[in-house]
Predict the structure.
Amino acid sequence: MDGEDLQLSLSLRTIETDLQISTQPSTSAVEMRMNPRAIDMNRIPTPTPTPTPSSFDVEDVVSSPNSSGGGLLAGKRTSAEREEKEGGGGGGRMSDEEEGETTRKKLRLSKEQSAILEDSFKEQNTLNPKQKIALAKQLNLRPRQVEVWFQNRRARTKLKQTEVDCEFLKRCCENLTEENRRLQRELLELRALKRSPHFYMPVPATTLTMCPSCERVEASENQTPIPSRQQIRL
DNA sequence: CAGTTGCACCCCTTTACCTCA
DNA sequence: CCTGAGGTAAAGGGGTGCAAC
């Protein structure tokens, strides 16, 4: 599935779930029960009287007049986001009064939102701007939130993969250590055998060659009584 | 054509908040 | 009820690619 297809499927899902979302409270009743203080940060902060769910999208999309095709918005600091920040949303310190109203609260994405994001991530772990906007609209989140979620998700994936790789290398290391111990033991045994007076007696004109893969010692006729370098070095 | 600038995007690290044992 | 640990949304900084000038 290429980007365009994903885009189409996302758009379709947007339409589908828009219908569902519109009939559902954005903060689940369960969440509110669990945390009565919870503010519904999943909703776009819209000026009070007439909440228009899609109004932010319009502003966001037009926010970057310079953007050429690939970069409608998101990324580091779009003008819309800067405005958002300066308007009091973001990191900078502000008065207590302001804080009470506009401080970014740590939101918890609803299970439904997380599930949809996960599904999208499974399809594609990066989003183009259009997909991001569509997904944001579908989830009733800001595009920047979707983008951040994908960034964090990629980071989590990478961390997990690193852990798996680390575990694999650890096992390799253990196996090699064990193999090393085994070879050391074998070496000692062979040295002891070499010191034994009967070592050369039974097979005077024969040398011992060990196959490194099957670890079998094979006796073979040899013209020279002295083993070559390729043969076992004791 | 090379250099500069602005923008968008990504990754990484850190911070701040939330949840749970 | 308090607290520390773990999870995670979000911020901030640095690097890179691209288009316009």
About this structure: The beta strands of chain A are 206-210, 217-221. Chain A has a mean pLDDT of 59. Residues 95 and 190 of chain A are 81 Å apart (CA to CA). The longest helix of chain A spans residues 143-195.
